[in-house]
Amino acid sequence: MVETHHRVKNNLQIIASLVDMQTAEKRETIPLKEFERLVMHIRTLATVHDLLTHQAKEDKVARTIPARAMLTRLLAAIGQAAGQPALESRIADAPLTARQGTALSIVANELVSNALKHGRGK
Predict the structure, then answer these.
(1) Does residue 46 contact residue 12 with C-beta atoms inside 8 Å?
(2) What is the mean pLDDT of residues 39-45?
């Protein structure tokens, strides 16, 4: 389990770095916003994977992940990427399956990213 976690996490980080390099070069074949969106999705999946692996280490079964922990980490990553590291949130906790956690993280990523991009104020 630990070896698999390590390999998946490293591969996701490599992919994100390669996309970041392409974004920096501002290639015209793919819009810059699409690269940025891809990077956030990869980082979102890496966050969920990391939390699932951490839960597996702690309880040896890892049937669920805590919603609050997942969303807190995800919001920190989104805020950092957007240059706003102090996002304010109130998150209720609930146990989520891996599938639910992945779906929720993707939806939250889209909602928060769009709010930061298009919103005004806090």
Answers:
(1) yes
(2) 76
